[in-house]
Each structure stands twice: as structure tokens, then as C-alpha cells.
Amino acid sequence: MAHVLEGIRVLDLGRYIAAPYCCTLLADLGAEVIKIEKVNGGDDGRHFGPYVNGVSLYVPTFSRNKKGLTLQFRSEKAKEILRELIKKSDVIVENFRPGTMEKMGFGYEDVKAINPRIIMASISGFGQTGPEHGRAVTDVAGLALSGLMSVTGTLESGPMIIGTQVADHTAGIVTALSIMTALYDREKTGMGQFIDTSMVECLAPMMQTIIPDYAMTGRKVGLHGNTDLLSCPSDCYRTSDGGYVIMYAGSDVLYEKLASALGVAEMRDPKFATVELRNQNKDEVENYVRVWALEHTAEEVEKTWLDAGVPAAKVRDVEDLWNSNQLKSRGFFVDVEVPGIGKVPFARSPIRLSAHPDTEYAHAPAMGEHNNEILRNLLGMNDQEIELLRKEKVI
Fold this sequence. Notes:
Elements lengths: L8 E4 L5 H11 L3 E6 L13 E2 L2 E2 L1 H5 L3 E5 L5 H12 L3 E4 L5 H5 L3 H7 L4 E6 L14 H7 L7 E2 L3 E2 L6 H24 L4 E5 H5 L6 H8 L16 E5 L5 E5 L3 H11 L12 H6 L1 H12 L4 H10 L4 E3 L3 H5 L2 H5 L3 E6 L3 E6 L23 H8 L4 H9 L4
Parallel strand pairs: 1-2, 1-6, 2-5, 6-7, 7-10
Antiparallel strand pairs: 3-4, 8-9, 11-12, 12-13, 14-15
Helix pairs in contact: 1-7
């Protein structure tokens, strides 16, 4: 069975996470993704950890199912190779600082002149326009600039980042969706287009009702930890074994279920009878739950609350994730060959299509692993021409 994006060719000029992850999603769907790296040192991610047997797990995570090509972009011959590849491709993805591609001679107007059907996606901190468009934005800066850090953390901790690269991944997902939309649009118009993804604009919508509320009332939401701003009890509770369970029981119905499950007589006091009254006595309500949770293990707390019909979840760490029967039953972990290590388990693509259920996972390419294949089969070069490019350090 053909993969859904079979026949679509993508040029991945990305680095770090946002653009490479976007292209990984497309590669997992069957697109032919050509990862283009600089000749000296390759993708910067090749020098990032973590390491196993001296081999980085970074590139295998973000470049599976891709083909590898090296090009020295300062060389006019390399630029000509890229122009020939653009003629034969459907999509370009890059996440350099705005203006970089134009300086190289590969801005959207340049590539559109080469191939009117090309779809070019650029990922940057603020997008390609606006007074701050040229500013370099990392993942954590994106969290700060989008407002998300202003509501993440406690008064004691101060603003906190999220424990992994949420901005990069979100931008990668949004860009992949944009590319799929542009491909669909091209089927109707025959023309490509430019995709301008802003990391900040990908994150800021997660502020959801906070934005219109401020616009209409001037209210600002501050740091509130894991608690719910409008009802209680709702928090992340420490347990006797050092674990944590997060729970929400803010409505009257859920509070009644929780009080019954805990068996704490004081929680039946009339001063806790409604959402408004519980908010007025929030510290006291939360303390009853906190004390009870500390007397039980995380597994016991989660089971008690779930059995009572109260939404709750133990905070899982990577060991819990790895041992999850739910994830394993759905084939979430896929083994991919990593040269120098062997079979390594990775998280599979989250995209599941009933008509295309099987995704194959090939190892990430070594630097320039497919140079000969791409230049010979796609661009029609002979062995002598390829060897000359290698001697001149064009590839």
C-alpha cells in the first residue's frame, strides 16, 4: 500500500528542532525528504547529546526516514545543485533567521521563479514581518515571548519553562499542517505558495481565554502553579511515596464525589457547599486534600479518585511512560536502527490514518549518505562529475 505522501519531495534545510520535526512528520507519511547539511560538521544537532556508545541520539530522533545530502552553500556550484533540486521538488522547509534565504539567493520570489509549484515554509520566532521579525528566538524565548511563562510556575518559583521543547514542536506541527493545506490548495490552483510560521504565534493561542479577558477587562492572570483559577480543589498533590497526582474536582458534583471518597468529615461543612464558597475558603479545602494524599501512595490516590469518578492522573516520568501498557498496546514505541548502537526505540508518529496504517521507519542518514544517489539518479550526474564536486568540497 502506497504511503499517503508518496511522490512528494521535500527539501529539509532545517536545523535544531522546529523545521526538522516538521519534515520528520512528512517523511513518516511517505514523503521523500532530502536533509541538506553543510559540508563541514553537518547539522549542528550532530554535536548534541544525549549519547549512547559515543553516538548522539539527537539526529536519529529528528531525521529518521530522510535522505542525506551535503552542500557547501558558499559555492556557486552548490547553489546550482540546489536550484536543480528545487525544480524537481514540491516543498522547501527552513528555519534560518529572516532574511538569510534572501541573502543566499533563495528567498521565496527566487525559488518561485525556479518552480512556480514550489511550496516554501519558513519558521522563525516572530514571522517574516513586523518590527521584531529579525530577532533570533530559541524555544525557551518563545515560551517567554508568547506569554506562556507568565502563567507557568508559582509565586515562589517565579516563571518556569516547560520541561521540553514545546515551542519548536508546536511550530513544527503547525508548519506540517500548513504544508498539507498548501498541497491540497495546489491540487486546485496548480500553484505553490509561501508559508510564514511564527513560533510566538503558534504558542500565544494557548493563552486562550486569557487574551480576550484582558482585552475586555484588563485582568491579568499571574502565576498560579497547578491550581485552577476559578474553582477548587484542583492541584497537583504529593503522595507518601514521593509521587504526584494531579486532580480536578471544582464542580459541586465532583466535590461531592471527592468528599465521599476521602471520608473527611470536615469537607462536608456548609461553608464548602458551593463553588463560590469553596473559593472563599480555598486554602482550607486544599489542605484537607493535601493531607489525605500524603497518607497514600500515588497509585492508591489515583485509583481512589478515578474509582470515585473524579478526573485524576498520576504524574508519569519516563520510566512510567516506557512501561505503559496503553502505549505499548498501540505500538507507540518503534525500533529504528542507529548505526553504532543498533536497534533503538523511539516515539512513533502521532498521525494515524486508517487507510494508511503502516509506517516504515528507516534510520537517519549519515552526513552525505545519499550524495551519490541523489546527484546521479535525480540530477543525472555521472561518477566523474560527482567525484569532482567532492574534491572541490562542494559536497
